[in-house]
Amino acid sequence: MAAGSSSCSSMVLDEVKTPHVLAVDDSLADRKLIERLLTKSACKVTTAENGQRALELLGLIDGQHANNNRGSKVHMIITDYCMPGMTGYELLRKIKESSNLKEIPVVIMSSENVPTRIKKCLDEGAEEFMLKPLKQSDVKRLRCHMMQLGQPCNGRLCMG
């Protein structure tokens, strides 16, 4: 496969119109904020309180590939960096190691601006590293990453 091409060409038009985002954060307040911002940007949102629950929702449990046909496809994962049990970085690594999930864009968020942490996440395959709290302008910027899975970003969806 050529660099920059996508293995997700089977995405249907309806899914492109309503991107599905998995938001992972151990803080209920932060999950609610992310959910509200994404919903205002016409996204479908599923939330998870930790990395393990996110892997369950994605059908990736204990490193085993499970059938992930029971729910709608996730177009982006946005996760907090600092979480108990499994950090956002560890979640990112598990996703990028999975042949079924590695094409899904992952965005890491943190309230701490630590350059080495940011570089480590970006080097491991994160699409973006954003500082918390997220703002509506941040979410609009992310829509392009969601759309790139199914087709080239055409400007109409890149509102940020």
Automatic annotation (TrEMBL):
Residues 20-147 form the Response regulatory domain. Belongs to the ARR family. Type-A subfamily. Functions as a response regulator involved in His-to-Asp phosphorelay signal transduction system. Phosphorylation of the Asp residue in the receiver domain activates the ability of the protein to promote the transcription of target genes. Type-A response regulators seem to act as negative regulators of the cytokinin signaling. The modification 4-aspartylphosphate is found at residue 80. Keywords: Cytokinin signaling pathway, Phosphoprotein, Transcription, Transcription regulation, Two-component regulatory system. It comes from Escallonia herrerae. GO terms for biological process: cytokinin-activated signaling pathway; phosphorelay signal transduction system. InterPro entries: ARR-like (IPR045279), CheY-like_superfamily (IPR011006), Sig_transdc_resp-reg_receiver (IPR001789). PANTHER family: RESPONSE REGULATORY DOMAIN-CONTAINING PROTEIN, TWO-COMPONENT RESPONSE REGULATOR. Coiled coil: none annotated. This is Response regulatory domain-containing protein. Transmembrane segments: none annotated. It holds the Pfam family Response_reg. Gene3D superfamilies: 3.40.50.2300.
